[in-house]
Design goal:
This protein is an alpha/beta fold. It has one domain: Rossmann fold. The strands form two sheets. A four-stranded parallel β-sheet has the order 1-6-5-2, sandwiched between helices. Helix 3 packs across helix 4 and helix 4 packs across helix 6. The longest helix has 18 residues. It is globular, with a radius of gyration of 19 Å.
Length: 254
């Protein structure tokens, strides 16, 4: 394709689908998919210190080491660490909802790129072998019309130049976690996953990708399944960590 033809197609695409902020939808996207106001808010929430073991926001002066923080559960998660973009607040919340429920491809690309950058920065020096999404059951995927976590994980894999793995599958169509209290979430997803071709993951460090972590029950069950299948380590990468507003209100205006 000639350069002229390429520029023409780009111009037509911009006319039909103008650049918009992936969070608020205004037609003034300026950097990595976010407008100036949303970008400023994103930088604010992304700068919040988070526990590497549970992903929770850590208050000023408290700190968190590789062993966790005061908010970590008594029984540690089966994944070894959490990489997140920030807490589940604006503008991340709006961008994730657009990506998840409106099938916004631009949101997938922008958010996947940002998550890949976060993984590169926070896992520098660590060996990563394969990127695996937290899978949807085929019935839910059929009803929704697409698999957002799979698309997100594929984008992360491309940015990190890592193979994408589809060995983890969902074998039970469980009720959505969002409708359940925290006390029932672990039981709801117990036994929900299985691994195809376990030999492909033997001894591997798996980057497990999902959109939002709330209690961690789903990601924990997925990590448990991966490790029982032979994976050596599981690192969880999520766009956002849902938590009480008090955890970050003193540090960011959202």
């Amino acid at each position: 394709m000639s350069s002229f033809a390429g520029e023409f197609l780009v111009s037509v695409a911009r006319l039909l689908w103008p650049d918009t902020c992936v969070a608020c939808g205004t037609n003034d996207r300026t950097n990595q998919g976010f407008c100036e106001d949303c970008g400023r808010q994103l930088l604010s929430v992304a700068a919040l210190e988070a526990c590497p073991r549970c992903g929770s926001t850590v208050g000023p002066g408290l700190g968190a080491g590789e062993d966790g923080c005061s908010r970590c559960p008594d029984v540690m998660f089966r994944f070894h660490r959490v990489v997140r973009l920030g807490p589940y607040v604006a503008p991340l919340r709006a961008a994730i909802r657009q990506m998840k429920y409106c099938r916004w491809g631009r949101g997938i690309r922008e958010l996947g790129g940002l998550l890949a950058e976060a993984v590169s920065a926070r896992c520098a020096g660590e060996r990563l072998d394969v990127v695996v999404p937290v899978p949807m059951h085929w019935l839910r995927r059929l009803g929704r019309g697409w698999n957002h976590s799979g698309s997100l994980a594929q984008g992360v894999a491309r940015r990190l130049k890592l193979p994408f793995g589809d060995e983890l599958v969902r074998v039970r169509n469980t009720p959505p976690q969002v409708w359940l209290p925290a006390s029932r979430r672990a039981a709801n997803v117990r036994g929900a996953f299985a691994v195809l071709r376990p030999k492909a993951l033997a001894g591997a460090t798996v980057l497990l990708v999902d959109d939002v972590m709330t209690t961690g029950a789903t990601a924990n069950e997925a990590a448990r399944t991966l490790r029982r299948a032979g994976a050596e380590r599981v690192i969880l990468a999520v766009l956002a960590r849902a938590e009480p507003p008090a955890a970050y209100a003193h540090r960011a205006r959202v």
